[in-house]
Amino acid sequence: MAVAALVSWLVAGVAGVYMFGTWLSHGGPSRQRARSDGLPPAVIFIHLGVGALGFAAWVSYLVTGWVWLAWTAVGLLMPGIGLGICTVTLWAPYPTPPGRGAPVPGDAGPGGAGPVSGMLAAPAENAIGDRVTDEALATALSSEALAGQLINDMLAGLPGQQPPARRSLRHLAPLIPAGHGLAAVATFVLAVLSAVNAR
After folding, report:
1. Gap between the Cα atoms of 111 and 137, Å rounded
2. Whole-prediction pTM value?
3. How far is residue 9's CA from residue 191's CA, in Å, rounded to a whole number?
């Protein structure tokens, strides 16, 4: 069980270090300070530090077998998980009242996810308007059959105008923090059970 806790802790740590590196590479601390509703960077640094100290205590427990090190690791896990929950709570997208949702220049969107794109993005202003003249539109609207034909022609022409869509993996991005959180909870449960069994 102690080794399972170590493996779970490693999974949580790898996901955490990946998210931390991504956060730093996108301007992390300076971007958070620029936002009025931003998460204080100290929360993230303390979360990372407490997790690393707890991991070191757990490895030391596995090497020495000293039970007090296991309980020290468990004790460090508690504030680490608490800070992680704070981070998720403050970074999770939430509805904002009108007027408060103005984007911050250079902001990567809620949770760093980026601007809205794909099916949720607004169509380009000239997506169809540049291809239909006013005269053709007036003629097509004079008859239901012509209007139907115009709509069919426009819909058939849309895929040809767009570049081939590259399959984005952005929809999988929430799995990293979710996996990190699940691994942290599993680590806590396994570490507590291991520490209790060690006595």
Report:
1. 43
2. 0.60
3. 9
